[in-house]
Known about the structure:
The protein is mainly beta and 161 residues long. It folds into two domains: 82 residues, Chitinase A, domain 3 (Roll); 49 residues, Beta Barrel (Thrombin, subunit H). The protein is 8% helix and 38% strand. The chain has two helices and nine strands, in the order βββαββββββα. Strands 1, 2, 3, 4 and 9 form a five-stranded antiparallel beta sheet that branches. It has a four-stranded antiparallel beta sheet with strand order 5-8-7-6, with no helix packed on it. A hairpin with a 2-residue loop joins β7 and β8. It starts with 6 loop residues before the first strand and ends in a 12-residue tail after the last helix. 16% of the residues are buried. The model has no long low-confidence stretch (mean pLDDT 92). Bound molecules: zinc ion (ZN).
Amino acid sequence: MQITDNHVVSLTYILKDDNDNILDQSDDGSFCYLHGAGNIIPGLEKALTGKQAGDEMSVSIAPEEGYGIRDDEKMQQVAREMFPPEQDIEAGMQFHAEGPEGQTVVVTVAAIDGDQVTIDGNHPLASVQLNFDVKIMNIRDASSEELEHGHVHGPEGHAHD
Ligand code: ZN
């Protein structure tokens, strides 16, 4: 079976920057996603298309096909009172916010100055060249429910309450 749209793919990966620092890797077991649904960055999805279980590959992905180019317009000052008062706010903290198209975006606290908080809506890996070592473990057909939801269910994927 080859990786094409509407298949559930499980794989292991190590992600490094150009200085060989490990930025991320699959935890115990493998990472699982629905191919063709935009679950993963476009460059990696493209590179995986047509591969088979057991295949291993190294692929280097430019930021344009990864998490995008840093955009200073995504830096924004907001009032401290936008955050829950009981929450400690520190530079480097990350939280989830809703983006312009309703998507979930990761926002990082860049700086705090009195009651002004500077937040950065750039992805932490924006402008980073992404070097993946990937091994494809398994490929299966997606269920109709998974296709409807646009993500993977079951023991390796997420579960609904
Ligand atoms: Zn679901």
